[in-house]
Amino acid sequence: MAERLTPIWQGVLQLSSIGINDNFFDVGGDSALALELFNKIALTCGRELPPVMIYQAPTIAALAALLEQPTTPRVPPTARLKAGSEEPPIFITHGLGGSVMDFFQVVKHVRTPHAIYGLQARGIDGVDEPFDRVEDMARYSLDAVRQMQPRGPYFFIGFSFGGLVMLEMAQQLTARGEKIALLAMLDSYPHMRYLSLRRRAPLATRAAWRRIAGRLKRLSRMSAPDQSTVDVPVSPATQRYRDSGYVALERYQPRFYAGKISFVRAAIPTDFPADAAAVWAGLAHEFELETALGDHLGIVTTHFESLAAAISRYIAEARC
Which of 260, 255, 318 is CA-nearest to residue 289? Predict the structure, then answer.
């Protein structure tokens, strides 16, 4: 298997030679190249694995061993995204339908002596059924966190839907008397049904305009087929995970948190309320608001340096 993988790695990384024990990220790999790598592996080897597995198997030798297994390997609940020399570690979790690969650029620019670990939801690998309740997602992640760090203080960061999961984790830990040093929520909001009517109305209007724009875009593609784009198919495991996540989002109504929420909102509102403080300030003992450049996805994918700067400051302040 290693012999089959080597030319694929060389082509994706544009290297003339690569050792079977060379680390993917050390030789120029990033999240986009990992996606390309696993797509080509699926086409060449007939085995589909989520790209996030590159954190578990970052070398040709390790990935070959995974592919040689007769059954689909499980995605572990944690992945180290950044090394660090100080304790405790920092934990970050992804949004609905995403993976910890989404944070590659953000984490790269976060300045902290602490190690950063990504929390990966159950079910993205298609091996286990995904949860459809935020409370169960939080317990699953807490089991993994407490194996690494039995006692607080804990540093939690959650993007989008992942912010709700981190909030619930903080709620469950504080109920046990544990200390949360940092709960940072990155453009994270409850389902629209739990917003006031005044907050829901603008979101419904925006959603209607996006649906119209989407129809117009599809019609333009039909009239100009040479300019059409091909949609990337979603795997059954990913779709099942997303569907369960939407159910969990609809079910979860945040309750008052007796600690501090450090919140980063996107400068450009899209599917979410423009006034984050109006949503969250009444649901936390203390609420701190920061604005990062970009829209909901752009704060992670395009303007990651702005988001990383805010996260770096939150971590530094929480350490004091």
Answer: 260
For residue 236, the 8-state DSSP code is: H
- pLDDT (tens digit per residue) in 207-220: 443 443 344 334 33
Confidence of residue 150 (pLDDT cuts 50, 70, 90): very high
**pLDDT value at position 229?**
35
Work out the end-to-end distance of the chain between its first and last CA atoms, rounded to an integer number of angstroms. 49
pTM for this predicted structure: 0.86
Residue 267 CA to residue 284 CA, distance in Å, equals: 22
Gyration radius of the chain over CA positions: 20
Is it the case that residue 198 has pLDDT exceeding 90?
Answer: no
What percent helix, strand, coil does the chain show, rounded to 5?
50, 15, 35
Residues near 122 by beta carbon (within 8 Å), at least 6 away in sequence: 77, 128, 129, 130, 131, 137, 140
Distance CA 219, CA 222 (A): 5
Q: Could you report the per-residue pLDDT of 39-52, keeping only the tens digit for each?
A: 999 888 888 888 88
Three-class DSSP category at 188: coil
Can you list the alpha helix ranges (DSSP code H) found in 50-196?
60-67, 104-109, 134-148, 161-175
